[in-house]
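tool_call: predict_structure(chain=1)
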Amino acid sequence: MNYEHCQLDELEVEPFQVKEVLRCLLHTILYQRILGATPSNRHREEESTLLEISYLRFDDETVRVAVEERIEQVAKSLDKASEARGQVDLSFFERRLRKGLLGLHNVEERVCWERWSCTLVVRSRPVQDHSERAAAQAELEARLAERLCTIVHMCAEKKEHLPPIESLSRDAIAYEIAGTNSAETWGVDLFKRMLQATPPMPAVS
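tool_result:
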């Protein structure tokens, strides 16, 4: 299957930082990629309660709760992994209709048009020294800020493969969040209700 694959450089985190790092990454990607299919004023700047960093996310409780559920599941899969390394994938899909057998009926299929991958390296032994811990957190904040800037830049540059806005506003925008350390994949048609309730907006150039 042909789709755009965006690989982010890995991040080294402590177990208690996994969820917050995933929040920053996933909300930033979702906000950038759905922008244009929903009103751009439905967003808020979120200040991290754990790290000295902020990010944009949709100001919608349905979105927030759905992402939190996936973050919780991915974090648990990483916590139970035999190796302290795991890749998290965020894939976007478009729904298309194609002719079924003998052309008697239409069959709906999901076509992946973009996938984001990020590897988290979880330290098995937390840093104990106060000065070393402060230095490690400052380094994580700097590297995470770089990843967020990379996401914004890549979303602005890579547009040729995006599905038509008309199809995104007509159907649900589906995505899946998966952790490679778990056999489970968590999918959600997150924006169906929101898209049905709001008119499509032109894409931001």
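agent: The first helix runs from residue 18 to 34. Proceeding to next step.
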